[in-house]
């Protein structure tokens, strides 16, 4: 497989600052298949990679195959029994586990499919691996387009998401950075990430999303965090048809102030492409350039940046978008005419990188957007200054040792059984909303060829991790969450 080599990118961007970019890609991730008719198609990651290859962008990045996340890595956020369930359930055995399927919200939106747990390991490993690279100063921007699954909760699946790789990556970044900013430009509210950090001031979550009769039904502008996290959750509710001009203007005004007030040590940007015009499940009217302008703007702050994927269900446009945004990360302007590639027929009839937004009505009036801007600015005014976090000792994250130096797995991990449940207490037992099956959505059928997975679960051979001291992340008024210092490593080149 052509990978473009492993040369570090030293591309000069529009702000005349060099960038080193690490790009995480597992060739097998495109094999996984949610099932007939399901809108989530991991195959889009392979299509994105093909465009990157044929545009020559792989030559400007360090291309890495992530180590799969292990059980212990996933359990830094998720409950042990939930991870054990994901690991054991198969399409053949699921009918014997009706109670567990309901308990963990696995079934319709989040089906059981061949290789499910291996899929979770791969996409989570890329996000945590990117965080490790950033922590070690080995890149300025890390990219994992297979990640960004922002709906997964501590002990349940949601909205096509099983494991919340974003939360795991942020926990990794918090080992090195006192404050981490999370930004979500997916059309759906980033509820899983917000919920995880709702009561801490070390992580600010900012979500731009469709609000109303729309999955997941959360993300009201009045949802601002709780306890120590009060005003550290910011929600920007939007209506149908928002265009580039309105979206980008609001984004830049708010993010400028947020960066000034919060002063993060690292930024995680979830680049869900379902906010693009023409998305199968979306209702916004953004162009690829408009969506990419948000990436360009956050790049300009010269803060360590982790770019992740997310939603996106018109897969030819998802591949276009994430290819373009990889170019933005590198500071490279790529031609509109698509190069010939394995999936060239998907991009007809125009065979261009950019697509023209529709003429749909923009239901976001200027007054509505101004009211939102004023409210968010008012919320920010309640932040007196960026929180100060005193670290007694900052532990290191170790990369894999030589085989003979590796600790025994049973000796390298000792997770405290008293880990606090940081799920938002506001969530009750009401029926869970559905992103796909129970929403009244008009979805265009696409002709797509998706290879069913024949992958076998990975167990992370040869990636035992050294454990260092323990630090704590404040997550509520009364408890602290011990964050054990273990992680997935990330420097295995694609071969």
Kindly describe this structure.
With 495 residues, the protein is of the alpha/beta class. It has a single domain (11-483), classed as Arginase, Chain A, CATH 3.40.800. The chain is 26% helix and 10% strand. The chain is built from eleven helices and twelve strands. The protein has helices spanning 43-54, 71-74, 80-88, 98-103, 116-135, 165-173, 191-196, 244-262, 288-299, 315-330, 366-381, and strands at residues 11-12, 18-19, 21-24, 62-64, 141-144, 180-184, 203-210, 233-238, 266-270, 305-308, 471-474, 480-483. The strands form three sheets. The protein has an eight-stranded parallel β-sheet with strand order 4-3-5-10-9-6-7-8, sandwiched between helices. A two-stranded antiparallel sheet has the order 1-2. Strands 11-12 form a two-stranded antiparallel sheet. Helix 5 packs parallel to helix 6 (165-173), helix 8 (244-262) runs parallel beside helix 9 and helix 8 (244-262) runs parallel beside helix 11. It starts with 10 loop residues before the first strand and ends in a 12-residue tail after the last strand. 52% of the residues are buried. Mean pLDDT is 83; it is low at 1-14, 391-430 and 437-491. It catalyses: N(6)-acetyl-L-lysyl-[histone] + H2O = L-lysyl-[histone] + acetate. Belongs to the histone deacetylase family. HD Type 1 subfamily. The active site is at 151 (proton acceptor). One of its GO terms (molecular function) is histone deacetylase activity. It holds the Pfam family Hist_deacetyl.
């Amino acid at each position: 497989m052509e990978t473009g080599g492993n040369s570090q990118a030293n591309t000069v961007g529009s702000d005349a600052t060099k960038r080193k970019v690490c790009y995480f890609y597992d060739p097998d991730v495109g094999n996984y298949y949610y099932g007939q008719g399901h809108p989530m198609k991991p195959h889009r990651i392979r299509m994105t990679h093909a465009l990157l290859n044929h545009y020559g962008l792989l030559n400007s990045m360090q291309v890495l195959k992530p180590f799969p996340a292990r059980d212990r890595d996933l359990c830094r956020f998720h409950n042990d029994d939930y991870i054990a369930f994901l690991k054991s359930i198969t399409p053949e055995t699921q009918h014997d586990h009706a109670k567990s399927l309901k308990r963990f919200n696995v079934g319709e939106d989040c089906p059981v499919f061949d290789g499910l747990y291996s899929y979770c390991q791969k996409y989570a490993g890329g996000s945590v691996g990117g965080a490790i690279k950033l922590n070690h100063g080995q890149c300025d921007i890390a990219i994992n387009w297979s990640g960004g699954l922002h709906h997964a909760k501590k002990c349940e699946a949601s909205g096509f998401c099983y494991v919340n790789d974003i939360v795991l990556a942020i926990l990794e970044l918090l080992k090195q950075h006192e404050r981490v900013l999370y930004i979500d430009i997916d059309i759906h509210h980033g509820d899983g990430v917000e919920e995880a950090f709702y009561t801490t001031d070390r992580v600010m979550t900012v979500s731009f999303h469709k609000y109303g009769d729309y999955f997941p039904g959360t993300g009201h502008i009045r949802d601002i965090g709780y306890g120590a996290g009060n005003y550290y959750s910011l929600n920007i509710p939007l209506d149908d048809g928002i265009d580039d001009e309105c979206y980008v203007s609001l984004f830049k005004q708010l993010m400028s102030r947020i960066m000034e007030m919060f002063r993060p040590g690292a930024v995680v940007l979830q680049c869900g492409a379902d906010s693009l015009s023409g998305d199968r499940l979306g209702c916004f009217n953004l162009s690829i350039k408009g969506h990419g302008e948000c990436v360009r703007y956050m790049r300009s702050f010269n803060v360590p940046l982790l770019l992740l994927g997310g939603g996106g269900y018109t897969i030819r446009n998802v591949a276009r978008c994430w290819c373009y945004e990889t170019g933005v990360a590198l500071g490279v302007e790529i031609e509109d005419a698509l190069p010939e590639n394995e999936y060239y027929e998907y991009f007809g009839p125009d065979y261009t990188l950019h697509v023209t937004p529709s003429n749909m009505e923009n239901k976001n009036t200027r007054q509505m957007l101004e009211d939102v801007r004023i409210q968010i600015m008012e919320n920010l005014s309640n932040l007196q200054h960026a929180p100060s976090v005193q670290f007694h000792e900052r532990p290191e994250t170790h990369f894999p040792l030589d085989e003979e130096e590796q600790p025994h797995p049973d000796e390298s991990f000792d997770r405290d059984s008293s880990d606090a449940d940081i799920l938002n207490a506001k969530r009750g037992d009401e029926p869970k909303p559905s992103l796909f099956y129970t929403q009244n959505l008009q979805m265009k059928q696409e002709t797509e060829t998706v290879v069913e997975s024949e992958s076998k679960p990975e167990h992370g051979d040869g990636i035992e991790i050294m454990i260092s001291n323990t630090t704590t992340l404040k997550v509520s008024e009364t408890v602290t969450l011990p964050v054990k210092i273990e992680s997935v490593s990330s420097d295995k080149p694609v071969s």
